[in-house]
Each structure stands twice: as structure tokens, then as C-alpha cells.
Amino acid sequence: MATWRSPRRSVHWLPSAKNRFRCRWFVRRSSRSSPPRSIAITITSTPATPIWPPARAPSALRAVLVNLPIINAPVEALAQREPARRLPRWLKRNVPKGNANHFTERLLDELRLETVCDSAKCPNRMECYSQKTATFMILGNVCTRPCGFCAVDKGKTQALELDEPARVAEAAARLGLAHVVITSVTRDDLADGGAEHFYQTVLAVRERTGAVVEVLTPDFVEQRHALDRVVAAAPEVFNHNTETVPRLYRDVRGRKSDYRWTLDLLRRVKQLNPTIRTKSGLMLGLGETRDELLDTLADLRDAGCDLLTLGQYLQPSPQHLPVTRYVPPDEFDELGRAARGMGFLQVASGPFVRSSYHARDMATTD
Fold it and tell me: Residue 26: which pLDDT band, with cuts at 50, 70 and 90?
């Protein structure tokens, strides 16, 4: 895990445009091989509701920032520091130790690659990095959908990097991956939603490594040609997350999302290439009922979905959707058994389960 320290030992808040505040601090990684870095983050809150530490900071950095003295801050900044969010005991875990996670982080930096592990603040990223694995996120690190649950940045997107497929393949080879998971931000600004980039990345990874490839795609709403292009690359696993039940769908995923299209997408993948295993996942703790959840799982089976993940939703920041309930591990176990009884080939169900968590184990087990 990257550790952080602050030579400045303080934070300066500076007035910015539109009544927003900007804080600047200087930090550097503890590794001697990593150069010092300066970071500036604009706090997108008014003086009446400042939040410290900023939600965009990595969790390891937040632990340092929360204890720094604040200089020239509005009084409210000190009075309204973010309260500690208590997690149930089953959602607390030790951080893996060792150098393998540093190796993975340095390699990703060197090849200028993004991972959904970092961008979405996945709670498993240190475990996965320590095992020299990661889920590559292509098409930039800015999303065009304002999903209420996701920590990935939203806003102005970036130009496509045409050498990105080769860099992903290079990283997969140097990490020795036998199962490579490729996902992306949603790119509604592109005519094909980024499908061609997916296609090129799958081919590059397969040619360079011979690995099993799993894609986790956006919905490509109403763009069958885009979906068809990704399927043409013949990934071994095609994953598209349902995320939640129909009643909460647009509140969680945004107005452009369509529950029926999600089911149609999974069904069409099977129609185009029956050898591809389809996969989907849901987050629990967003307000769904048990009956709604079981009905959704039945819909997924009817659409031919093979593999299923069920995990606990964790609120990335106070600006995101709140957690309505922390589901106990024994309830996850019971839901997993119910899903297997419906006919899913493999089910991963647990508080820390995420879309690509132990993805190789799910894909390789008959």
C-alpha cells in the first residue's frame, strides 16, 4: 500500500471562483523511487458546507489529511469535518503487507494505465494489487454518466489514446496474468460508446498473453452495433452489471439507464456467441427488498446470465447515495444458495464481493 506523508504539515484553503474553495498541500510517497508530488484539489462545496478531508483523496491519503492542521479555513470547515463512518465488524479487514502491491502500482504508473480499483475506491484493491492483479479501466478516467453510487470522476472526457490497448497488453504480460479483466468508463460522447477500443484491447491482450479475457462493459444503450463489435472480439466472459433492482434503477444508475436494455444486452450476447459466458452483479444495501432482489435474479437467469456477483454497497463519500443497510455475511450466504438454486453456474456472494473479485476462479470453474 502506498503510504503518504506531508512535509508541509498543514493545509491552506484559498478562495476560488463561484464561492468554492481550493486547498493545496504537498505530499510524497514513502518510496525513495517515487518523486515528490504536489496535489491540488478543488473542494466543490460552498463555505457553509465544506468537507474535510476531500472525498476525492485516496483512502490512504485521507487518513493523513484528516489530522493535518487547517490554515485560513472558514470557521465552518473546522466545525463540519466529516464524521467518522462506522462500519460493522465484518466490513473491517487488515491491509495486506509486502512489496507486490508496490510493484503493481509502479507498473501502472509507468504504463500510464487506469484501474477501476483506484478510480472506484474498491475495498479489495490492496489485496488484488498484492497478488499482482488489477482490473484495467480503458477510455480514460472520466465518465459521462452521473451514477449516484460510483466514485469515478464525471465531467469532460479525454481524447482516446490509441496506444492504450498495447499498454494494457504489456501490463498484463508483465504481471503474468492468466485472466485479464477489462472495463471502462461510460463514453456516451463517442459514436460507438468506445466499442472499437474494447475490441482492439481484447485482441491486443490475447495476442500478447494468451490469457482468458473478461470484459465489463457499459450498457451501450440502443447501440446494438457497438455491442456486436465487442462480442466480435470473443471475450471468454462478457460482464455487464445490473447494479440494483428495477425500482431503484434510474435513481442509482441515472436517467439514461434502462433495466430492460440491460437484460436485452445479456440475452443478445448469448444469441451472438453462445460460447461466451455472461455475467452480472448487484450491490446490496441501496434500499432493495428481498422479493425485488429475487425477482431480479430470476430475470437475469431468464436472460441466460451464467455468473453472478452479490456484494455490499459502500458509500464512497457523503455526496454519494447513502447505505440503507449493511447486509450480514450469513444473509449473503443464504442469498448465494438461493441464486445457485435458480441455475447460475457460479455465484460469488459476500460483503466484499465485487464484479471482478476472484474473477478467474469464477470463470475457470465448471
Answer: very low
330-341: pLDDT as tens digits: 999 999 999 999
Distance CA(363)–CA(366), nearest Å, equals: 8
For residues 249 and 287, the answer to whether their CB atoms sit within 8 Å is no
pTM of the model: 0.76
How many C-beta atoms lie closer than 10 Å to residue 178's C-beta? 13
The letter for the amino acid at 346 is: Q
- Say how many C-beta atoms besides its own lie within 10 A of residue 274's C-beta: 10
Query: With bands split at pLDDT 50, 70 and 90, how would you rate the model's confidence at 359?
Result: confident
Sequence-ordered list of residues with C-beta below 8 angstroms from that of 31, at least 6 positions apart, any chain: 2, 102
Query: Can you tell me the distance from the alpha carbon of 278 to that of 228, in angstroms, rounded to the nearest whole number?
Result: 14
**Left, alpha or beta for 181 (phi > 0: left; psi -120 to 50: alpha)?**
beta
Q: Which among 245, 226, 222, 140 has a CA at the least distance from the CA of 183?
A: 140
CA distances 256 to 69, 140, 154, 172, 312, Å, are 43, 20, 15, 33, 24
Three-state SS string across 25-36, please? Answer: EEEEECCCCCCC
Q: How many CA atoms lie within 13 A of 187 on its CB side?
A: 23
Full DSSP string of 68-90? S-EES--HHHHHTPPPP----GG
